[in-house]
Design goal:
With 290 residues, the protein is an alpha/beta fold. It has 8 helices and 15 strands. It folds into 2 domains: 136 residues, Rossmann fold; 132 residues, Rossmann fold, CATH 3.40.50. Strands 9-8-12-13-14-15 form a 6-stranded parallel beta sheet, with helices on both faces. α1 crosses α8 and α6 runs parallel beside α7. The two termini are 19 Å apart. The structure holds ribose-5-phosphate (R5P). It is found in: Cytoplasm.
Length: 290
């Protein structure tokens, strides 16, 4: 049975179709004191595939509750799909006294799951924080599916060097174009500095690709540089469209053609589904484990 977290209801439904598995009814309630209660009233079968993006503290707690609920209801195998795993950017103690939040979260959910599936976590090394089998899926190639054909001299560019592999994956699927990246220095949560390369972007269609849009500062700074350089149209592709703190408006004001996001976080811009990629990963590990 596919068991959806409250933030991943559309993706869970698409995955249920992909895997030809029933979709469980889940209730999401809140007590007067603010505590959440996620429940699976009629869980049936042996295997539970929980699909739960953990973009808020509440959805983290919900995930723990869903894992416990299906185990209590008799599930003999629990697969936890975390389309967007919150707290992964705190993957080390950046200052004395800080927690490694990603590790704390992984430790919390590991005892109640047999396998974990992640999609483009901020750092792949987050997989090491879990006890069991972890599969990491790359959804970047699918971002190319929503781009229009016939882009003019397309350039696929990453806002920093760490995302250039994502930009390259999108270019490879699109089939044509060059790749590049900015040199980015982050001064604060709201201030990033970017140095452009020598690439001439005038009259070219540009696709900026990153793993996540949080506040939108990174992407809007990149877009402004590209428009200043005379780019024809600027598209944005991201795996996780978190779009916090007015990010959508920042992007529009910077001058974009379209934002293409996946459904790891369900937003209006989530035009690409990661369900086929997740289904393939689950089926592949099934074969591997037989
Ligand atoms: C940073 O390394 C990430 O890849 C993203 O570029 C970053 O998290 C985006 O954050 P924001 O949208 O707040 O600039």
């Amino acid at each position: 049975m596919i068991v959806p977290g409250s933030s991943s209801q559309a993706l869970a439904s698409t995955l249920a179709t992909e895997l030809n598995e029933p979709l469980a009814e889940v209730t999401y309630d809140r007590f007067p004191d603010g505590e959440t209660l996620a429940a699976v009233p009629e869980f049936g079968g042996d295997r539970a595939i929980i699909v739960a993006t953990t973009d808020t503290n509440d959805t983290w707690v919900e995930l723990l509750q869903l894992q416990d609920a299906v185990t209590e209801a008799g599930a003999t195998e629990v697969i936890t799909v975390i389309p967007y795993m919150g707290y992964t950017r705190q993957d080390r103690a950046f200052k004395s006294g800080h927690p490694v939040s990603a590790r704390a979260m992984a430790r919390a959910i590991s005892p109640t799951t047999d396998r974990v599936v992640l999609i483009n976590p901020h750092e792949q090394s987050v997989a090491d924080f879990f006890d069991g089998h972890v599969t990491i899926c790359d959804a970047a190639p699918h971002l190319a599916e929503s781009l229009p054909s016939g882009l003019s001299e397309p350039l696929f560019i990453a806002p920093d060097s760490s995302a250039v592999e994502l930009a390259t994956a999108v270019r490879d699927t699109y089939g044509t174009g060059s790749t590049d990246y900015f040199e980015k220095t982050r001064h604060s949560g709201t201030d990033v500095e970017m140095i452009t390369s020598d690439t001439d972007v005038s009259n070219r269609d540009v696709v900026v690709v990153d793993d996540i849009i949080a506040t939108g500062v990174t992407m809007s700074t990149a877009v402004s540089h590209l428009n200043d350089g005379g780019a024809a149209r600027v598209y944005i592709g991201c795996i996780h469209p978190l779009l916090a703190r007015g990010a959508r408006t920042k992007l529009e004001r910077a001058g974009i053609e379209q934002v293409i996001g996946t459904d790891t976080i369900e937003q209006e811009v989530s035009v690409v589904s990661v369900a086929p990629t997740v289904a393939t990963a689950i089926n592949a590990v099934d074969v591997e484990m037989r």
